Inverse folding.
């Protein structure tokens, strides 16, 4: 059987992760990268064609892909690229602005349905695997709620969104934000209390900030602590460090998380389910999940399905390279 | 929308759990119990009709069920009841003899396909949720293996199969077997070593045995330790206790387990996923999962699907009572 031909659309951290992940999936191959800035990407490697993303006709004709994995950002890239591209080819993306997923789903569903393509949206580990585990937790333990925690290890989990938010403050030269789960909050959930948390009850935030020369430390600390949504609701610790200290301490993109639901079965017997993940590289984790979804999307397209889908709409067997016989014999 | 009408077929521990679980799912209702021994079951409750399982025409006509949840045992009941019943009505079962699942799937698929029914087989927590997590672990971390461990807590997990095996030994009046995971084995997997284990490397077995009067303790201990498959491959501890001690120590059906897969992403970044469950009552846990699958099976049947399916063939959204809009807005 011929390999699934994948185009990587966008070459940032996730795009690099997708190229690496595809090498571990022998039933798939990367046939090229498309980018808004192909000259920049061409400096990174020479073994694959790199074409301008906007020339869709050209790269569809040249690369004959089965699917495009969209690796752009959720804020500015995907809301534009997503509907435009899924009108031309099957797509997968990791759109992760949770509150706007229903709206993004509508746009993608309209474009993919009318053009006859499959568009799997908002996958990775959260949204993605965690969404799946939240649904399973609630379905198998009715009446309980599934909670998500992030940054359970000592170092916490690196949040790119919060790091970016820190860097928008005038006087901040560079910054990283680590999220920490509150252990007592996890224990409350594990005990089956199904508590009504405020966001600040579940997580704390730790910032490592490099100042520009002459910046006002106190004013910046105040700006961080009062930033609505990002930091104001949380207990926030701020460390001012040098660029060298930041580089030494904050290498890589580690992140981790937990979905947990607890309640009772029958006449009050305790019941608890937990899904835990730990990633040395957050963007590579997202990339691995995207690639498995690309396999699923191509299968769905070959079955004549069309429109937008999420991980909640896809049977697990579609993610696996194993045959039905192998799944029944070795995985059940 | 009218409720899903469920018949419970078989009234043992799992059947009792299904009745309890259905009360927590407002979109479903139990319309009756069918049993090989309805007189025995009628002594347990009066609020529901109880009919002889063999009179299929009669209970289909009287109860008008959408689906039957088959709660019989995997050894003798389901291989006979399953194909007979899924030829008449949609079914769910927890057939858990892992090595015979492919064969059972074939039989159920033939009967359900030709009669136009949906038969979801082999669900619960293992096979069931754990099967799903094994497939997801392997799909998202290609090259890693997903391992299952049981009995991680101090008390271990009560294995009904092994308890039954102990009770077949002449001179044994009563017995319980607790499975314990080997912590060092879990740590090996967590470190990403993907080790090649023998069964005895992963678990140990602890037996609580009540002897009949005059039974030969040493002969029975020897019979346990050398029992092929069940105990011979494992480090096995045996406690001889009185019936009172057994009853006091071994109340309920607690069990728990872990699916874990670990490897790397990209250029060697560590990656680990784990699914952990802890159940105060093993049969009630199975029952909760069966009930969510009954919802899924009825939906599939209403879409015109037919044949045998496993949890690997069913999208997560089908298990949930929530609408697509609610799933997109609250669970993604």
């Amino acid at each position: 059987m011929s390999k699934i031909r994948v185009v990587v659309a966008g070459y940032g951290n996730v795009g690099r992760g997708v190229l690496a992940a595809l090498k571990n999936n022998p039933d798939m191959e990367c046939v090229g990268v498309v980018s808004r800035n192909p000259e920049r990407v061409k400096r990174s490697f020479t073994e694959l064609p790199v074409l301008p993303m906007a020339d869709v006709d050209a790269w569809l004709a040249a690369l004959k892909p089965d699917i495009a994995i969209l690796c752009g950002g959720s804020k500015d890239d995907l809301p534009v690229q997503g509907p435009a591209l899924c009108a031309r080819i099957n797509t997968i993306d990791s759109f992760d602005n949770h509150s706007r997923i229903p709206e993004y789903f509508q746009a993608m569903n309209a474009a993919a349905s009318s053009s006859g393509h499959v568009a799997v949206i908002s996958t990775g580990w959260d949204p993605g695997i965690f969404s799946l585990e939240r649904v399973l937790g609630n379905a198998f333990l009715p009446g309980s709620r599934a909670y998500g925690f992030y940054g359970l290890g000592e170092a916490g989990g690196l949040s790119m969104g919060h790091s970016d938010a820190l860097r928008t403050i005038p006087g901040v030269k560079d910054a990283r934000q680590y999220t920490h789960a509150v252990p007592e909050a996890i224990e409350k959930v594990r005990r089956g209390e199904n508590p009504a948390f405020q966001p600040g009850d579940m997580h704390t935030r730790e910032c490592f900030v490099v100042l520009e020369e002459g910046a006002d430390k106190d004013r910046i600390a105040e700006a961080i602590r009062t930033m609505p949504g990002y930091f104001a609701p949380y207990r926030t610790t701020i460390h001012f460090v040098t660029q060298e200290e930041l580089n030494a301490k904050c290498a890589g993109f580690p992140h981790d998380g937990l979905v947990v639901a607890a309640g009772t079965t029958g006449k009050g017997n305790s019941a608890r389910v937990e899904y835990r993940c730990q990633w040395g590289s957050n963007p590579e984790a997202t990339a691995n999940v995207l690639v498995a979804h690309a396999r699923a999307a191509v299968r769905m397209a070959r079955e004549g399905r069309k429109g937008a889908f999420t991980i909640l709409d896809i049977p697990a067997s579609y993610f696996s390279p194993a045959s039905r016989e192998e799944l029944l014999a070795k995985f059940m």
